[in-house]
Design brief:
Layout lengths: L1 H20 L5 E2 L5 H15 L13 E12 L3 H9 L11 E12 L2 E14 L2 E14 L4 E8 L3 E11 L5 E12 L3 H24 L4
Antiparallel strand pairs: 1-5, 2-8, 3-4, 4-5, 5-6, 6-7, 7-8
Amino acid sequence: MKKHLRLLSAQLFAALLVLTTFSGPARAATVDSDPQLAAEWQTAWDTYKFYENTPPLPGSGRSRAQESISITIDAPVAQVFPAYSNVNNHLGMHSFLKRVVTHKDCITAGKRHIDFTAVEEIPYEGSIVVSNTHAQQRINYASLSYETDTWSQPNVVTHQKIVFEKLSGGKTKVTEYLTFDADTTLIDFVVAGGVASHQATQAGLKQAIENGTI
């Protein structure tokens, strides 16, 4: 069983890595400077409008899939919410995520808007493939929730809403509602990889919050 799971993981990783390797902003052994990343972010924002949650049109060749994942953290929501919503705390929770570059941080319409790029470094055949994911996070302190929209090559868009629920006994339930838009031929790989990545991050944040690391 374990061997079978490892084989599936390897196949999925290889497929996702191919998508990354042949995407525009991804490149081997290269790390963009912050101004370059800011320019990339603005181009992605202006071109793809990845913050617009509009389903792909029929016949467009693109598809949408939705998933939700939850985790219970043994800590009060007043501790969990600021720690979990701080994207810089996600560093180290997923082995590929190496840098978070913030381009803008402001309050708009009562929400905190953060424009940033997540830089991943993926080992591949003795070299490093650098992949940039451009994102906007909107934190709503009043409702104890936040939304994050991301765009990355090859034209993969995610819409995320993360909700924090106070539980008895000083615990917090965190539910992530994930929506993926991608080319129809890639959607299954995108969803599988995206959900696995978010689950790994959830587990890492849970451990770090519960042991007081963050």
